[in-house]
């Protein structure tokens, strides 16, 4: 049985294809249409999923969607009436990641079946199974976790109305325990401050997280007035500080917020200590709030297991706080925790919960995208007119280039799904070179100075370099660890200002070629670590050989290692 899950008309449009409950392919539309965080209907992603599996649209038994638009209408009527007439402005405000009016967005979601039929010339409009958004998040984690039962926590900006859901999974079932509804949302809180600091809300929150490492606790006490942590494990935003609940994306914060925390930073303005301190206060508040909610969930379930997902679960500092400060023993954090993962979640929920399909599949990697043979890669190299050579041991030769402090693009195997590059579409450089972070930013990434780069480390060596929360591994780069004091001078390019690192532990079984690359570098340098960042330059992560070659040619790379081929400048 084939099930296709779709997310679209919000942000991170994507498609996931299941066969008998097993993930076969998952692709974000942005990787193909080259529009970051795209809102578009994922036609190219659907076509690529079908092509990778070698089937047609007529072979799909069930279609699922990551949102229930009728539920959104029903559940938000009370919000609209409560804030009327100010709430009238929400009808003309941009929605999601685009300047699309809410009614237009809702209509697009309601008619997604017709969209599929029209795009794929289907004889009839397929039935769409609309799944509640936070249930999609929950399913994307629990139903592929190693747990037969687990507490489930989902935190994001918002679904149809819920911003946070506490649930319990058992077997094939997911039972909602409690929800927090908008306008009370940690995701929207982070988005509001992201906007105030001159960044793009919904997209640049990780910039604010990086900025927080340079802050002090000067504003932390005052910022506590923004979020009220209630005794029962709930939370409420102090709406005196916000206007997004009546104006949408037109105005995230209120004049009271500006009076309290200063004027909004212009997007190309300078950074001051005040900005760092505000980011720090926000980050610490979100960590405390996330831990507060997780403790409530433990009290409700007394489960040893926790599944964590939703866009806010990409906040690695909050994840560490939850792990260290709660009684959960076993943690699974869905690495595709943003809305891209809800296409997968909708398909999983329909197959396992609605159709009662048995659970046999456990999530053990993120390499669900397309891959390309040496023949296809060589054809792309010839078409681009570049000089290249084929080598017998790509890992060994590439490791030498990295040891020589050259910037290397590494393109291998099936593309990763999710927001992190995890060794198949990566830029890799020498972490022992203290200048490499600045060199990489100046020549390729063009990123702000305060954004850290991540270390990839051999799984067997992680305890020698990092102090991980509860000694957990981090195969998906969703946990942060402290760099051990005696190792900070050894790997300065991946040690952040607060001496942390967003760690990526690499398994020989899961990704043997990337493991071999790190191991070859280890043989040369004695350091089992590489600096790993996404293979892109202010664009979505590359997907195809041509994407990789084009990025290599237009930026100041030194080497491209693609398949078994090496290209040098």
Q: Any overview of this molecule?
A:
The chain is an alpha/beta fold. The chain has three domains: 2-136 and 337-354, ATPase, nucleotide binding domain (Nucleotidyltransferase, domain 5, 2-Layer Sandwich); 181-333, Nucleotidyltransferase, domain 5 (2-Layer Sandwich), CATH 3.30.420; 374-568, Carbamoyltransferase, C-terminal domain (DHBP synthase, Alpha-Beta Complex), CATH 3.90.870.20. The protein has a ten-stranded mixed sheet with strand order 13-22-21-14-15-20-16-19-18-17, with helices on both faces. A five-stranded mixed sheet has the order 3-2-1-4-5, sandwiched between helices. Strands 8-7-6-11-12 form a five-stranded mixed sheet, sandwiched between helices. It starts with a strand and ends with a strand. The model has no long low-confidence stretch (mean pLDDT 96).
Which superfamily, in CATH terms, is the homologous superfamily of the largest domain? Carbamoyltransferase, C-terminal domain
Helix and strand composition category: alpha/beta
Characterize the main sheet. Answer: 10 strands, mixed
Averaged pLDDT: 96
Number of DSSP helices? 20
Strand content: 15-25%
Q: Regarding CATH, which class of the largest domain?
A: Alpha Beta
Q: Could you tell me the number of beta strands?
A: 22
Q: What global shape is seen?
A: globular
Examine the secondary-structure arrangement and name the CATH architecture of the largest domain. Answer: Alpha-Beta Complex
The end-to-end span amounts to: 48 Å
Rg from Cα = 23 Å
Q: Strand order, biggest sheet?
A: 13-22-21-14-15-20-16-19-18-17
And the CATH topology of the largest domain? DHBP synthase
Helix content: 25-40%
């Amino acid at each position: 049985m084939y099930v296709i899950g779709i997310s679209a008309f919000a942000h991170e449009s994507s498609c996931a294809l299941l066969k008998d409950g097993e993930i076969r392919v998952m692709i974000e539309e942005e990787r193909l249409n080259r529009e970051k965080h795209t809102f578009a209907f994922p036609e190219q992603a659907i076509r690529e999923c079908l092509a990778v599996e070698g089937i047609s649209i007529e072979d799909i038994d069930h279609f699922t969607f990551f949102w229930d638009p009728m539920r959104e209408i029903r559940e938000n009527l009370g919000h609209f009436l409560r804030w009327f007439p100010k709430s009238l402005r929400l009808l003309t405000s941009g929605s999601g990641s685009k300047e699309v009016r809410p009614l237009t967005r809702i209509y697009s979601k309601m008619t997604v079946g017709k969209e599929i039929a029209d795009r794929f010339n289907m004889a009839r409009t397929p039935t769409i199974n609309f799944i509640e958004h936070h249930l999609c998040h929950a399913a994307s984690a629990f139903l592929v976790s190693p747990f037969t039962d687990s507490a489930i926590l989902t935190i994001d900006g918002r679904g149809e109305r819920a911003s946070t859901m506490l649930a319990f999974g058992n077997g094939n079932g997911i039972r909602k325990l409690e929800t927090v509804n908008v306008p009370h949302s940690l995701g929207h809180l982070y988005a509001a401050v992201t906007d105030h600091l001159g960044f793009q809300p919904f997209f640049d929150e990780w910039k604010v997280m990086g900025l927080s490492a340079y802050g002090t606790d000067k504003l932390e006490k005052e910022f506590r007035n923004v979020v009220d942590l209630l005794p029962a494990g709930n939370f409420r935003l102090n709406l005196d500080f916000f206007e997004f609940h009546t104006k949408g994306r037109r105005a995230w914060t209120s004049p009271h917020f500006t009076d309290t925390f200063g004027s909004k930073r212009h997007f190309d303005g300078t950074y001051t200590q005040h900005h760092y301190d505000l980011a720090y206060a926000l980050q610490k508040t979100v960590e405390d709030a996330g831990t507060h909610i997780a403790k409530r969930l433990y009290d409700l379930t007394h489960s040893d297991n926790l599944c964590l997902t939703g866009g806010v679960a990409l906040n690695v500092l909050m994840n560490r706080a939850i792990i260290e400060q709660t009684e959960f023993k076993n943690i699974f954090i869905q690495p595709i925790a943003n809305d891209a993962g809800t296409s997968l979640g909708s398909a999983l929920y329909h197959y396992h919960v609605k159709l009662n399909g048995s659970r046999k599949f456990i999530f053990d990697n993120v390499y669900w995208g397309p891959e390309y043979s040496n023949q296809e890669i060589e054809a792309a190299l010839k078409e681009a007119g570049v000089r290249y050579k084929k080598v017998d041991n790509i890992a060994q030769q590439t490791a030498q280039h990295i040891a020589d402090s050259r910037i290397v693009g590494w393109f291998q195997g099936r593309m990763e799904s999710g927001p992190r590059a995890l060794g198949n579409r990566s830029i890799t450089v020498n972490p022992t070179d203290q200048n490499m972070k600045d060199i990489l930013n100046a020549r390729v990434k063009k990123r702000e100075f305060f954004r850290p780069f991540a270390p990839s480390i051999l799984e067997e060596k992680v305890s020698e370099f990092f102090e991980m929360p509860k000694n957990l591994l981090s195969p998906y780069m969703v946990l942060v660890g402290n760099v051990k004091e005696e190792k900070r001078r050894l790997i300065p390019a991946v040690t952040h200002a607060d001496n942390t690192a967003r760690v990526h532990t690499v398994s020989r079984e899961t990704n043997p070629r990337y493991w071999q690359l790190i191991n070859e570098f280890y043989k040369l340098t004695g350091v089992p670590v590489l600096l790993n960042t996404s293979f892109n330059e202010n664009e979505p992560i590359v997907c195809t050989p041509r994407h990789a070659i084009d990025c290599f040619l237009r930026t100041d790379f030194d080497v491209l290692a693609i398949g078994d081929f090496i290209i040098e400048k």
